[in-house]
Amino acid sequence: MSAYTLFYDHACPMCRHEMLRLKRLDKLGVFTLVNISAANFELATAPASMEKMQALLHIRRDDGLVLVGVEAIATLYRAVGRGWWTGPLVWRATRGVSSWIYARIARHRYGISVLLGFSPACRDGVCKV
Q1: Residues 6+ apart with CB under 8 A from 85
Q2: Residues 6+ apart with CB under 8 A from 27
Q3: Helix locations, 47-90, DSSP H
Q4: Statement: the pTM of the whole predicted model exceeds 0.85
């Protein structure tokens, strides 16, 4: 089984919720979460530019392979035994639409987080990490 480093935006409530949920499902301990919005995040260790990582989820497998967007999501869910629902994300016939939808969700993730009722990481200038 491969190990994965997940580069995610912890400042995004929906993203944070999903990454922490995936980490809880990670019974084999193969996920390492890296908060790209942290003040001490080192871009030199990242698989892509900050702009690209802010646009789409990036994960790096322990062999160095970088997966992005819906392919990254499908890989993570397969790794925790929940890959049964990810087929439509990566099937040839639906991958383009899935990628398009995911890119729009990622672009508007802060507003969508509010609409879905996720709590912000920061309140009154105090942030939880």
Answers
A1: 77
A2: 80
A3: 50-55, 70-79, 87-90
A4: yes
Sheet holding 66-68, edge to edge: 31-35, 4-8, 58-61, 66-68
Name beta bridge partners: 7. 34, 58
Tens-place pLDDT, residues 55-90: 999 999 999 999 999 999 999 999 999 988 899 999
Q: Residue 49 and residue 118: Cα distance in Å, rounded?
A: 27
Separation between Cα atoms, residue 45 and residue 37, nearest integer Å: 14
The one-letter amino acid at 109:
R
Give CA angle at 15 (8, 41), nearest 5°: 25
